[in-house]
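Pinned message: reference record for tRNA pseudouridine synthase B
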Amino acid sequence: MSKPRRTGPPPPDGLVIVDKPAGLTSHDVVGRMRRIAGTRKVGHAGTLDPMATGVLVLGIEKATRLLGHLALTEKTYEATIRLGQATVTDDAEGEVTSATPAGHVTREAVDAGIAKLSGPIMQVPSKVSAIKVDGKRSYARVREGEEVELAARPVTVSRFDVHDMRVADGMVDLDVTVTCSSGTYIRALARDLGADLGVGGHLTMLRRTAVGPYGLDAARTLEQLEESFAVLPIAEAASAAFPRRDVTADEARLVAHGGRLKAEGAESGPIAVFDPEGVFLALVEEQQGQAKPIAVFVG
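Predicted structure (tokens):
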């Protein structure tokens, strides 16, 4: 039996790093967290498929406004790719569409195929992704029997390592680690590796181990959060995820009202701004010599 909804004052603004179990959608986890935290203001940064487990970053209260920026950070996964079968969903939950003996595939061939899928690449997302096609989710169209063609998009795979290669029943299982940019589909990497090797491929296991600076060491299960709910304060979350800029009291007042600061020549991307007391004020981006607020968290 689930515990009653948390009562009392609203929870503090911040992040909760969840170790998502298999079988739940990201939306399911958000629903559970709304009850645990006692607030409707909960969102997630980056969807995980029901089959997948691991790091799911949730924002509580004002921290929901950080999520769109956190979703753009690199992500790391542990996965198992099965060569010798293709499926309609590119993972183990879909119907097998083809089976080709893969026992002859060598490690050298696998490494060559992985090399083609590393670095900046153009990737066609899985047909059962949540990408909208004419206003309707691609996965919904596939379930209704439609043939969906999605356009390739640029992604970056900065790490694609094979740790183990096992042969059984004419198929090959590869245990891999992948670090990639936002928008990369690990299922699609499995599909494309199998296609390149001429035997088909799909994903049988996927565990996300990190989203930007947040890893499994900081993650807690839903059961643990039910027993002891805690939030990573928004200031700590912002400081960990983005470059930090400390400003004077005068500059702090300007930023708090949406004003612009002088740029400091930082790299592209959001910068977390803090006042002299260490209060997190805003995210800014530098453009044309100015640091322009893109989200203000005070006032």
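Pinned by admin. Summary line: The chain is about 20% helix and 35% strand.
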